[in-house]
What does this fold into?
Amino acid sequence: MSVAASPAGGASAAAGGGSPAAQALMRRHRLRWWEALPWIAGMVFYFAFPAYLGFGCDLLVTILFALSLDLALGYAGIITLGHAAFFGAGAYTVGMLATYNIWTEPITSLLLAALVAGLIGFLSGLVLLRAKGLTLLMLTLCTMALLEQAANMAHAYTGGFDGLPSLPIAPVFGVFEFNPLYADTQYLFALGVLFVCFVFVRTLVYSPFGQSLTGIRENVLRMHAIGSPVRRRLMICYTISAAIAGIAGGLWAQTNAYVNLSALGLDRAATVLIVLILGGYGRLYGAFIGAVAYLALEHFLAQIYPTAWQLGLGLLLVVISLFARNGILGLGEMLWRRYRVRRVKP
Amino acid sequence: MVRPCKGLIMASKLELRGVSAGYGETMVIEGINLVLAPGECISVIGRNGVGKTTLLATVMGHTTLHSGDVMLNGQPLHGMPSFRRALAGIGFVPQEREIFPSLSVRENLDVAARPGPWTLERVFDLFPRLEERLDNMGNQLSGGEQQMLSIARALLTNPSILLMDEPTEGLAPVLVEALTTVLATLRAESALSIVLVEQNSRVALTFSPRTVILDKGCIVYDGESGPLSADPDRLAKLIGIVE
It folds into this structure.
């Protein structure tokens, strides 16, 4: 430790052109070559598996939903078991607008779904985010259960248990037909929506706001002490996360052309949590890896043991929890680090 | 030497009037009266568990205030959330350093930085080592580096009062010496009011001309540091090491 002036500091700042903070921000936002891989894989899937584009849509929706949860849980540390509330809110917004022929244009429908889900996220967040730990977990679960029951009771509008079938969705840009018979349009549309949302989330988590969310997750008291308005930031994050979950729900309703109570159910909330735990939370790409791993496991385990495939999934989760707490992505990072250390020290 | 600052922070006056506080129902400090004049530096010493950390935590609003007032520039802080206290100009360097482990050194600093005379450049003048470790993650730093980062982070909030809770705790003697020099520089070359809580009485008495001694949650001495340095027996009695 020294109090001597550091000539390097000023020199390096001057040489770089722009402030060091701006350079660091640009460095953080810089794209890495491997970040193109998921999108290349998405396009390869489109051409290689034209018969499975419906499955592909489900996968993309799951990734988007997991991404929204990652923002709240992985980055801000908001423990929630009720994220399906926002997924369902988005799905029912799109579904009801289409069923009653109020609004069927797919892109603006998704924006409305985001608005409704975001509003519910904001209002529920005003109460929920005052709680912590188990209380918070239970309150999120209650919010979801309340919405599910509300949707069930308002069967005159929501279709109740039967849901809203055969949603009429207008062609994309007024040109490309949009229904399950045109799975290629649906797939490309879903891929486009995921891309836009991903770019938004990526920009957000690498911004100073994203850093402050990480700070809040790691030490709330410390963030208070450096003057960060913790509750306001959590509210913003939770609302954005809810809006993105709403888009995922709306997209799910559009690609399946129906909505039912399963959009708001505990099954869906638990599944997305499992997806994130499998892939690795707080890592952006954990949602991608987790969704692919989950749906692939579901597919193969169901082939081996159709009546109890969840048993295999449960066992795998136990293994992940014990040996790879940061999910598949965390495990990969750990193995890569070990490999690099071995290469340096033969 | 720290480069001269471009802006100016108005020094603040901190006042505790009959403050009794603790955690929940448990009272830790009782009837504390303390005035920190603008630009003044004081040291607070005492044994483990006498309420030194609680005193700072009370100023930051982390404890339950049972009675009394904490005032900044004559304005009571009662009921003000801790982030507003930080925005009002109170900087806090906690005992456990509390670095964000998954943020880099730069990100740890960026997340706290607010406009004012303390800039990254000025902080690096004080701690050149941090500039070398800018891209390292918080959990890759040594104890000494973490302490530097913790102080640097608090300075970048551009406070008018800096509360430091045992900054030398757990550091090797050579690092304690270096940190003492840094503290002396801070005291001499900035307009900050500083409250230094220390167990190391030598560091504390050297740091400021005024020392406060706490025992069992109460102030048992508030006066000049010089007489205490010259009379170790009296110091030991006041601290409660000997009867």
In short: Residues 230-256 of chain A form the longest helix (27 residues). Chain A touches chain B through 30 residues (CB under 8 Å). Confidence is low (pLDDT under 50) at residues 1-17 of chain A.
